[in-house]
Amino acid sequence: MRTAVSTCFSAIDHLICYITFLCRTLSGWSYTVVPGILIIAEFSLALIVLVLLFFINAPYGRYIRKGWGPTIPARFGWMIMEFPAFAVIAGLLLTNEHAAGPYGILFLLMWEAHYVYRVWVYPFLLTSPSKPFPLLLVFFAICFNTINGTINGQSLIALGPQYGIRNWATDPRLWIGCCMFAAGFAIHGHSDRILRRLRRKGNGDYLLPGGGMFKFVASPNYLGEIVEWAGWAVATWSLAGAAFAVFTIANLLPRAVSNLRWYREKFADFPRTRKALLPFVW
After folding, report:
1. Can you give the pLDDT at residue 3?
2. Is 62 exposed, middle or buried (0-12, 13-18, 19+ CB in 10 A)?
3. What is the pTM of this model?
């Protein structure tokens, strides 16, 4: 166990060194060139991911299976792969004088609220922390989170002066987006808590979830995350935010459909009125 912990924190230490170098390099980029290309790439990747995941369930959690290469404990997998998202945007905003305004601070706090939970809280609440997690997925996630943190950070740097000029605090898009983000974060966290309690009650086995938003959809944790990043896109009113929201939908929607199918096959008493992702609709 000590060896695994040491390996995890060694990996995070290397990531910190890499991200520090990356942030120093990216701080001089022109937003309209490289990050613009990356935004287009993220929209394109979302379409590819959406199609692929309707045919292939990402091999983690209940869908873990052999054939995807070496694995590490899930706790360390989540920490390592989400860490770049936590660090890159903070590094960009905190090292750029143009981003040190009230809106930059607000958006950074919103972003970090999610990723503090994903990196420093969620992994330590897992009921099966030693469950295998493919290193291949960790690698892909590190790449995506680095790119996504980069384009959102550079977007906020570029748009920072415009928020002040437009008096963004009086714009309803900011407040609607912030409320959406807060609601999504609450749904996400509460749904995770329900699932953890069920895992403990079932000694690691899957039980039929209920309560909260589980009354309406099979994967409210995914719904919450989608609402979060849709709120981010509205609050920042940026193409980078929109690209992240679209990718989040593309990544989680097919898995929500698979989860609904899985629940119906496993539990004969699964409520037929419960939808996959959108209450009362779909």
Report:
1. 56
2. exposed
3. 0.88
